[in-house]
Amino acid sequence: MILVDDGMATGSSMRVAVVALRKRQPARLIVAVPAGAPETCDEFRAEADEAVYGATPEWFAGVGKWHHDFYQTSDDEVRLLLAQADRSGR
SS3 of 59, please? Predict the structure, then answer.
């Protein structure tokens, strides 16, 4: 199973996702992000079976700085996407 996020600053949301997915006992759990804080990325090398990072710059300064367009997804958009996924059986 590959767990992807838009980036990792503190790693809090990724850590919660890893714990939740470990309960499903995947054969392998891979964490992948385009950019992350170096110390946080180092921590995940022990928490996942594999960790893949595009960039781990010394001065990270936040996930949004590493994306051309980092618009926030609204609650309504998330609800709609979850409902669509539920109907399609994904």
Answer: coil
Contact predicate 35/41, CB 8 Å:
no
Please report which residue ranges of the chain form alpha helices under DSSP H: 12-22, 38-47, 75-88
Instruction: Write down the pTM of the prediction.
Output: 0.68
CA dist., res. 77 & res. 41, Å (int)? 29
| N- to C-terminal Cα separation, the chain | 14
pLDDT tens digits, 27-80? 999 999 888 888 888 888 888 999 888 767 677 666 656 555 666 778 898 889
**CA pair distance 35, 32, nearest whole angstrom:** 9
